[in-house]
């Protein structure tokens, strides 16, 4: 997992490239392995972005979180969510 996270962040690799190796070690289905890798890559990227915000923004700064729905997601999901957030430690 650490190798996958570093390759995704530093080299811009897609997490699906690591499915065969992880599958051998964890004996999971392809779908479960892909879901795990996407979730872990998103967690690492979010944490890296949070650290960047904390290091570069002032205490009174705000950033905007935007989430958009596309055709793959359920209709119950709001089309666009915009929140003004303050970076937290």
UniProtKB/TrEMBL annotation:
This is Phage minor head protein. The lineage of its organism: Bacteria, Bacillati, Bacillota, Bacilli, Bacillales.
């Amino acid at each position: 997992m650490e190798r996958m996270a570093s390759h995704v962040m530093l080299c811009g690799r897609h997490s699906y490239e690591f499915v065969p190796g992880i599958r051998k070690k964890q004996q999971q289905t392809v779908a479960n392995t892909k879901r795990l890798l996407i979730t872990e890559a998103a967690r690492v990227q979010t944490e890296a972005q949070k650290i960047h915000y904390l290091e570069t923004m002032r205490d009174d700064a705000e950033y905007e979180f935007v989430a958009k729905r596309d055709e793959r997601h359920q209709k119950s999901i709001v089309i666009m969510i915009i929140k003004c957030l303050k970076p937290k430690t």
